[in-house]
Structure of C2H2-type domain-containing protein:
Amino acid sequence: MPRSFLVKKYFTNKRPNYSELESQNAVIPECYPLAELPMRDNSSVLTYYPTALVFNMDALPAPLSPVSPVSPTRPSLTGPLDLSSSPSSSSGEDEEEGGRTSDPPSPVPPHHVYHCLHCSKTYSSPSALSRHQLTHCPGGSEISSIPSQALPRPAFHCKNCPKEYTSLGALKMHIRSHTLPCVCTTCGKAFSRPWLLRGHIRTHTGERPFSCQHCNRAFADRSNLRAHMQTHSEVKKYQCGSCSRTFSRMSLLHKHTASGCCPAS
DNA sequence: CTGGGGAAGGGGCCC
DNA sequence: TGGGCCCCTTCCCCA
């Protein structure tokens, strides 16, 4: 299941072709320009339907209790193996440095006492919970059990693509992928977010702040380090549902299944 | 063909 | 509400 359950994806899951938009935004000020919505003229990419978002709590399923420790985002068949049951094992999965991943592997932090009505997620404050629960509102499949009449329609549409969002903030974030306001001063490549640009700048500077504790190999991206760590693990994270063969990356598993190795699947 | 690294996209969460 | 960061995912390329 894609993580982007906020978005209705009508087309392919491949990256959008921004070449046309890039040509439209060829002149963008350097040095971290501000992201702004192209509101000039009457050609705003924002389509705002002032329909109030009504969150019908009565139409929602009963709260989950107790909270399941199983991650709800893991795919079932082709998803990664659940290795979280042995966090201190020698797989090296949890040995990377810093960040939230170094937190204790407790599935529910003790200060998280507000449970989502739709999934097993918990939050430390009512506001955080209510904000999260809004993500279940739009034509999302995660609440398919709720009658469609009880669900509010997505209110924010992107004019450049068919995506729909439940909040203006989410739409603004998405629009940045069209406007690409962050431009590399070295090569001129544009990005949607400053931190993406920072990661890109590392390709110019050669900075690799994430290093493997097993082989001292360094990486510019934490996710790439995480993928690399899988190569040190004897039991890979992603398992074929048919032949039980494991892979270090989901993409490799997809290649495996697409190659027809396991036609029964 | 397979495995792995590099680069990038994008939604979620916290502050 | 927005910035920053996290995490997952995907594509491309190369050995």
